[in-house]
Amino acid sequence: MSASPAAALWGYTRGARARIGCLVLLELLSNSAVLLQPLVARWVLDSLETGEGLMPPVLLLAVVGMSGLVLATFSHYLLGRLGQRLVFDVRRGLVGRLLHARVDDLTRRPVGDVLARVGSDTTLLQQTLSSALVRGAVAPLVLLATLVLMALLDLVLFVVLLLVLVVTTTAEWYVLHRLHKATEDAQDRVGGMLTSIQRVLIAFRTVKAFGTEASEERAITDDARAAYRAGVRVARLDALVEGLAIGALEIMFLVVLAVGAMRIVSGEMQVSDLVAFLLYVTYLRDPVETGSSAATSLSEGLAAVRRVRHLDVLPAERDEPVAPAAGRVPCTGLRLEDLWFSHGTEPVLRGTSLTAEQGLTVLVGPSGAGKTTVLSLIERFDDPDRGRILLNGEDIRGLTRKELRGRLAYVEQEAPLLGRTLREAVLYGAPETAEADLPEVLRAVALDGWVATLPDGLDTEIGERGARMSGGQRQRLAVARAVLRRAEVLVLDEATSQLDGRSEALLVQELLDQAAVRTVLAVSHRYSLAARADQVVLLDQGKVLATGTHAELLRSQPLYRVLAEASGEEAPLPRT
Ligand SMILES: Nc1ncnc2c1ncn2[C@@H]1O[C@H](COP(=O)(O)OP(=O)(O)OP(=O)(O)O)[C@@H](O)[C@H]1O
């Protein structure tokens, strides 16, 4: 967040500066054509008075007018295209940042707010990065040229006009400063509203079940109202800026007309000079309006940049190996040695050590014991503060994250699915899988029967009527997806929590089959899985209390017995 918003905004134009330069030239050309017109009009009027031929000045006026029009139209199109291109570049950069961010950095942000920053804030930037930059650069030059031409036409009128200009411009800058703050506030409020909507959408069933539609509606409406009020404030200040700009020109026109008329009466000025001067006064409107709308857009853009930068500076996960080449340790599977980890000040893991070799290891423990945290460290979503993790004898910090994750297959707690169709969802992460392998894996997770009932089978779109998936079906598909990766280690977080007895029995069997050829580490509250495991590790308050079989832990660990009994599953072994 070190660069100022203005520097960051300028940074976004990298790669397009030559195009911006060409557009500035094009705009200067089209404005020059416009600025020539009053002088040619004066020539027309003088020709009328002196009786010289009218044709040359009228023809020149037409040519100059047409050239200005063509150049302005072309420039308008090119500016629009440039804006789209620059916003595309910003969005592409942001998407890259988001996807390479650290899990914790991104998941702690409300999704709605992230969406607002990537969506509406970047849309605001579009205008700023094209029209505002180019026209904002050209407008002062055009204004200067107009003023110089006016000064050459009549110095007294010019001084009068300058006084009005200074007063109104000062007022306009003051309002612009307030507009800048108001815009930032309005964008923040839109982000807040989207966050509230996202919260409700995620827990929509709970909202219905608890009958809280009305209170949620009130809360979101309050957010929407706050966004509305902030937007109205922006509109008010925007209108004020616009009004000041137009009002200033009206006053200038009247003052110039009055003073000019007096000067004609006293013989100090020609009528054709006053007409040309008045034309320049009307032309003043253009660079002043363009300048003020460029300033407005720049102000909005800077507010947007500030919000976009919050995402744009998200540090990426480092992906180079960080451990010194300490050499291999003779062990297989996963070995966790004395892991310490904290999210803040309080450690979540306090010297966790465990070994999971080929076979099924089930990690159990009370809620908040640190089970998911252990899996996060194995996947290197985070690195431990102390201790190390070995994968088949190698310190995982000696592997790139990509390499490490390629050797693991992970099923996260909510088992979210990615992909448009069921086929894409199951092949996610293993797209090279042969079509012939799919029936077997679907059978293994007991989804073959359900898929057979769908008219479009695996091509059924997820989320559409035909494929509304239950939590259990989603979990089974997530396990199938992980199995297809044929990784060295299968890591599962509560992968059987939503299954009925029959599907669970099938899935447990599949996990046992997997455990016959690879290391399977499963966090589970289901003691039916623990009962079939090669070993069970009991974690409590970030420490391993005991390791053994289900029967051994039932006998020796009161906490394990309490947890097993509380799960309400099949009766534990007799106590000693
Ligand atoms: N991103 C985070 N920031 C701060 N604290 C966190 C974060 N993630 C987890 N924690 C805390 O770390 C502790 C361990 O959480 P973890 O999710 O590992 O427990 P768990 O054993 O998997 O629990 P459960 O069985 O309920 O899923 C909890 O106290 C939790 O509140």
UniProtKB/TrEMBL annotation:
This is ABC transporter ATP-binding protein. Pfam families: ABC_membrane (PF00664), ABC_tran (PF00005). SMART domains: AAA. Keywords: ATP-binding, Membrane, Nucleotide-binding, Transmembrane, Transmembrane helix. Residues 334-566 form the ABC transporter domain. InterPro entries: AAA+_ATPase (IPR003593), ABC1_TM_dom (IPR011527), ABC1_TM_sf (IPR036640), ABC_transporter-like_ATP-bd (IPR003439), ABC_transporter-like_CS (IPR017871), P-loop_NTPase (IPR027417), Type_1_exporter (IPR039421). It is a multi-pass membrane protein. CDD domains: ABC_6TM_LmrA_like. It is found in: Cell membrane. Its main location: membrane. Residues 23-300 form the ABC transmembrane type-1 domain. It comes from the Bacteria. The chain crosses the membrane at residues 20-45, 57-79, 132-150, 156-176, 239-262. One of its GO terms (molecular function) is ATP binding.
